[in-house]
Amino acid sequence: MKCHKCGNQLFVNDQYCSQCGERVKSNVSSLESTVIHDESQPQTSKGKSPILALILSALVVGLGQLYAGQGLKGIVLFGVWILATIATAGMATFVIWIINLIDAYRIAKKVNQGKHVDEWEFF
Ligand SMILES: [Zn+2]
């Protein structure tokens, strides 16, 4: 429960805010204002962390994309990475890895912002 005026953390039984002195009306109205306040904020429950996507793709190419909801792209990216590594004797490994990192971060950021991301969308 928070003060509706200054946002100070309040105890359930507080009658007045300890920080700004604002009267805490009642538990019910505080609860309602908390719910309304939460709805105005971006939905984080469906959001994807760009940092986590970055870390996952750093560990395994395509894993960050998989996490961000681009399952097929993530798997194909991983396959391409393996094939390119064999075909170029490891020369393409690092390049694809870096591209994969940037892509995972940017895609997860878009998903996090609630933007529509196509299955095969890059960056
Ligand atoms: Zn206050």
Automatic annotation (TrEMBL):
Residues spanning the membrane: 51-69, 75-102
The superkingdom listed in its UniProt entry is Bacteria
The UniProt keywords, alphabetically, are: Membrane, Transmembrane, Transmembrane helix
User: Under what name is this protein listed?
Assistant: TM2 domain-containing membrane protein YozV
